[in-house]
Amino acid sequence: MASQKPSIPKGTRDFGPVEMTKRNYIFDTIREVFTNYGFAPIETPAMENLSTLMGKYGEEGDKLLFKILNSGDYLKKADETLLSQKESTRLTTQISEKGLRYDLTVPFARFVVQHQHEISFPFKRFQIQSVWRADRPQKGRYREFYQCDADIVGSNSLMNETELIQIIEDVFHRLGIPTLVKINNRKILAGIAEILDASDKLTDITVAIDKLDKIGYEKVKQELSVKGLSNDQVMKLDPILKLEGSNLQKLHAIEQVLMQSETGLKGVRETQLLFELLQTAEVHIPVELDLTLARGLNYYTGSIIEVKAKDIDMGSICGGGRYDDLTGIFGLPDVSGVGISFGAERIFDVLEHLDLYPQTVNESTKVMFTNFGEKEQLFCLKIAKLIRQKGIRTEIFPDSVKMKKQMNYADQKNIPFVAIVGTNEMEQQKITLKNMNSGEQELLSIEEFMSKISQPLLIKK
Amino acid sequence: MASQKPSIPKGTRDFGPVEMTKRNYIFDTIREVFTNYGFAPIETPAMENLSTLMGKYGEEGDKLLFKILNSGDYLKKADETLLSQKESTRLTTQISEKGLRYDLTVPFARFVVQHQHEISFPFKRFQIQSVWRADRPQKGRYREFYQCDADIVGSNSLMNETELIQIIEDVFHRLGIPTLVKINNRKILAGIAEILDASDKLTDITVAIDKLDKIGYEKVKQELSVKGLSNDQVMKLDPILKLEGSNLQKLHAIEQVLMQSETGLKGVRETQLLFELLQTAEVHIPVELDLTLARGLNYYTGSIIEVKAKDIDMGSICGGGRYDDLTGIFGLPDVSGVGISFGAERIFDVLEHLDLYPQTVNESTKVMFTNFGEKEQLFCLKIAKLIRQKGIRTEIFPDSVKMKKQMNYADQKNIPFVAIVGTNEMEQQKITLKNMNSGEQELLSIEEFMSKISQPLLIKK
Question: Measured between CB atoms, does B155 come within 8 Å of chain A?
Fold first, then answer.
């Protein structure tokens, strides 16, 4: 076969050792915090039945699902008319019954329903896996990327929202990223629309409010008129548009507006209680009520959470909320869930940009033995074994090639120590240890070498 | 939409928390040993271009690849004749240009060639990722499963084989699985066929030798005759069929037979040197020369390695070998590679069967606080925060429901300690700590509680 120039599908990526170590640092941090709060790991298959996935992400989402061609003679039962008319869309489900997961939430809902009798509720699970979307690839948008989700299902308590925000605080504290948490409640938004007698205009209203900072009070009012709100309706919205003060002051103002909406007042009370819980839990990162926060509006039914990195324009790096009936579609109604999802790709970019990776992510092998030939490599094998038993990462250069090549290898792999063993060293039963940072070399006894190599590296930033 | 009974594609699996923890124990062990020998992690995309995958696993392999349907109007450019004649196989590449990876070796070869200028050789990488095969699912055979591979490319040295066998020893020592390593060398097999002037019958010969234990010396000779070997040829094979003694004795006998085969003698010398290196490295697990070992015969060009668990009939739990020109197909010839792959699924089964999981894999949350209401949960939030800061996994039951339900939850989740905080405890600023194993309860001050909960659990097996 002729040789081919290798490439990978657009929108996908290879991760080399350096990127992997950085990514694992992020995943390990998130995983550690999740488990510290009692969340347990699960994994679901990359492929789900298309019937599980279709219709869950809207019409656009259906198109963005990667579909797997059925195995074997997949055209056998396909409709001939559809084939001859090249009806791609309608043919799809006849030749494909599986798709790659699009997110972790729908597979999780499916998991909960399928395993409901093995699960003890409330079920706290986390899941760190890839998802796939046939989106147009662009900067920062990939067709394969990781999601890191934590959800609790089977509990209505606001303790869960509290815990998720504590998790957000812990994760970003450990990563060293200064963040701002914004929260909202779908019930407040619904209440506002209800009071205005404009439940159908919920999206228009939140979009308009969202522009307050940019276009100002008067223009927002104009926009709301254009969207069909009467003067009277816009007047009622006035206190909302002029919200200011602390979170509790804002909530108080909203409460006054929503006096006639049972749903709205419920949203206010939930949010008040959440702030109280966060205060007790001594959450120190800023948490701010933001009525314009409407992510996944058609999806969430209660709290909505979004996290932004301060001092860097990167969009949301974590988000989530409460959905009251996610498992209903799979036959298990009235199970409330609340969850958050960390955006690993953006967190990676933030850490790169702010240069926040700890020195340890650059460490791979601690000591490499040079290879001067068969006798020397036998000597090194014995010493290397002793060091590895102490859990110290050790390599022996496998080939007896030029010293320069061996040193280059150590250098490029960022190995801090090279142990040089030649005829002289072997005769004296000693090892020359070269510090690759300082360039210093020392002739050491095996005991001295072992002791030196066992010391922790000085962390330099 | 009507609710649907949830299920997953056949041959795939969900992993719940208990399985996940056990699987992670296996992956973590393997990953730790790999890094201890200086192997660095990489990841490749789940989807590769079909041109990368097709033709690499034989005709049967091509059929077992999961293919991804192209996005959008995938039928637009499809050949109308193929469509009307329902030519599934020939149509495939017209409507699909991506497939799911089938193993980690081909994507690795593609990675090495694509990134050859960023890599410093010899390149030691490990990769722990899922692979997908459209195989008929059966007991122990899945359509999605993990592979754990370590390979070195760009070095011909037998130090690499030595290191891989040391890795095998370390991994199974840590996991507590008694194992037997079998090794062979493709060059010895080729030499035997050469001496017999029957290079085309290499497979027949190894298959026949493989039956020696089962059907005996005479029947094997009969079988070889049936396969077309002359009496003279079978005679020459005699010393091979009667091999016995230590590895070195066997090698000596083989050497006598192969005196006229340059390739064969090369294989003998390589194997002798490998045994010498293993002895110096003080490898204690049994390593046995086995001429019948022919896994991946058309693939490997030098050493062949296979590992079996002792005392349990489970087939191979790890295997590998050397391939001299894997990257040639992607345009980079003459780069030798050698690698091993751990079979995580079978290792999982062996650990289950021999009950070898350490107690720690069952630990999730260490302490759960009960929830008796809003005041109590505020009290618990503060204490829980202090404990989590010590890295102790802690939960607060989120809902103020019946005590029995809360205790059941702790019980099912295998949580060893429950902290009970009611009105009495709050008044006294104390906590009742219940040991879920012994059933004992103690009323403790917050300091006593903190100290007690910080002690390591006694490990019981």
Answer: yes
Sign of CA pseudo-dihedral A324, A325, A327, A332: positive
Burial class (CB within 10 angstroms; exposed 0-12, middle 13-18, buried 19+) of A311:
exposed
A460 in Cβ contact with A359 (< 8 Å): yes
- Kindly report the number of other CB atoms within 10 A of residue B31's CB atom: 19
Rounded (5°) CA angle B281-B282-B283: 95
State the residue for tokens 């979004």.
A306
Residue labelled with tokens 């301060």: A310
Show me where the domains of chain B are located.
Answer: 17-194+286-353, 363-454
Distances (CA, A) of A224 to A201, A253, A292, A426: 10, 21, 14, 85
B4 vs A51, A76, A88: nearest CB: A51
Q: Which stretch of DSSP H or E encloses residue B112? A: helix B105-114
The set of residues, in sequence order, having a beta carbon less than 8 Å from that of A252 and lying 6+ positions away, is none
Asked if A84 and A50 touch (Cβ cutoff 8 Å), the reply is: no
Output the tens digit of pLDDT for each of chain B's 461 residues: 455 689 999 999 999 999 999 999 999 999 999 999 999 999 999 999 999 999 988 888 999 999 999 999 999 999 999 999 999 999 999 999 999 999 999 999 999 999 999 999 999 999 999 999 999 988 888 999 999 999 999 999 999 999 999 999 999 999 999 999 999 999 999 999 899 888 888 888 888 877 877 888 888 888 888 888 898 888 888 888 888 899 999 999 999 999 999 999 999 999 999 999 999 999 999 999 998 887 655 678 999 999 999 988 888 999 999 998 889 889 999 899 999 999 999 999 999 999 999 877 777 899 999 999 999 999 999 999 999 999 999 999 999 999 999 999 999 999 999 999 999 999 999 999 999 999 999 999 999 999 999 988 765 43
Q: What is the DSSP letter of A432?
A: E
Architecture of domain B363-454: 3-Layer(aba) Sandwich (3.40)
- Helices and strands per DSSP (H, E), number in chain A: 18, 16
CATH fold of B17-194+286-353: BirA Bifunctional Protein; domain 2 (3.30.930)
A124 touches chain B (CB under 8 A): yes
Query: How large is the ipTM?
Result: 0.92
Instruction: Name which of A290, A254, A37 is nearest A161 in CA terms.
Output: A37
The two tokens of residue A344 are: 């690993």
* A61 has a chain B CB within 8 A of its CB: no
Nearest CB among A7, A71, A365 relative to B114 is that of A7
Cα(A252)–Cα(A192) distance, integer angstroms? 14
Contact A114 B7 (CB under 8 A): yes
B14/A381 CB distance under 8 A: no
Do B131 and B143 form a contact (C-beta atoms < 8 A)?
no
User: At a CB cut-off of 8 Å and minimum separation 6, what does A28 contact?
Assistant: none
- The dihedral formed by the CA atoms of B72, B78, B84 and B90, expressed in degrees to the nearest 10: -110
Residue A113 structure tokens? 């329903």
Beta carbons of A327 and A121 less than 8 angstroms apart: no
Who's near B98: CB < 8 A, 6+ residues apart? A9, B47, B48, B49, B50, B67, B68, B70
